[in-house]
Amino acid sequence: MSRNYYIAGNWKMHKTRSEAAELAKALVTQLKDGKHKYLVAPSFTALETVAAIVKGTNILLGAQDVASEEQGAHTGEVSVLQLKDLGVQAVILGHSERRHVYKEDDELINKKVKLALKHGFEVILCVGELLEEREAGKAEAVCETQTVKGLEGVSAAELSKITIAYEPVWAIGTGKTATPEDADAIHAYIRKVIGKLYGADAAAKIIIQYGGSVKADNAAQLMAKENIDGALVGGAALKADTFVPIAKFG
Ligand code: PEP
């Protein structure tokens, strides 16, 4: 089964509007002949600026999070309606920084997943274990729970809008990457979990990205693995020089 590779850049809390515009313009130029699927996720403050630059190109616009409610008295939050208004097409949900720093639980993440789908967004649902969970032999169980709970109430039809990103927390921003073999084993396991929930066809089709210190020099080895269908990139997504070689691997 051939799946399209999907490379996404999470710019996190970096870049002013002018810096974001500069990077987006460089990516539009340098990825225009790229053969994979691409997404950039700037900060909320730069979405409108970047939307104007990536519109009509092969780069999708993503947000790094969204509120779990449609609108209302939720100081500091950003709603699906506001993101749609800016031309955002996808949202990253359940990122480990949201889970572990901002204490988002599976129930909240699931609420966001369902709301985003209801409003027609694509979703990148991040899952991944902490170092102590890996060392205790719980990596599969943690990823299974986060996948099952994150997708609760998501229909088989809606699953086509979901990408899973496996991001071992100990590999994010640390320079430590899971070996291609270790990553592939968890990807295979997550695919099995999707199979149990949605059937073999859905399991074969779902895109599972790897995230955690992906760089130009490890991207190709990771993506050569059968179950690794792309990457969610943090640090290396902040410069065209480091993101483009990942995005154009292969
Ligand atoms: C991320 O935050 O999603 C990520 C994978 O970061 P980094 O590439 O910097 O490890």
Topology of helices and strands:
Layout: E1 6-10, H1 17-30, E2 37-41, H2 47-54, E3 59-63, H3 80-85, E4 90-93, H4 96-101, H5 106-118, E5 122-127, H6 131-135, H7 139-150, E6 162-166, H8 180-198, H9 200-205, E7 207-211, H10 216-223, E8 230-233, H11 240-247
Parallel strand pairs: 1-2, 1-8, 2-3, 3-4, 4-5, 5-6, 6-7, 7-8
Helix pairs in contact: 1-2, 5-7, 7-8, 10-11
The chain binds phosphoenolpyruvate (PEP).
| Shape estimate | globular
Largest sheet: 8 strands, parallel, barrel
Number of helices: 11
Question: Into which percentage range does the β-strand content fall?
Answer: 15-25%
Q: What is the share of helical residues? A: 40-55%
SSE run: EHEHEHEHHEHHEHHEHEH
**Number of E-type strands:** 8
Radius of gyration: 17 Å
Compounds present? phosphoenolpyruvate
Structural class of the helices, strands and pairings? alpha/beta
Summed over residues and divided by their number, the pLDDT gives a mean of: 97
Parts with pLDDT < 50 across at least 5 consecutive residues = none
End-to-end separation? 18 Å
For the largest sheet, list the strands in their spatial order. 1-2-3-4-5-6-7-8
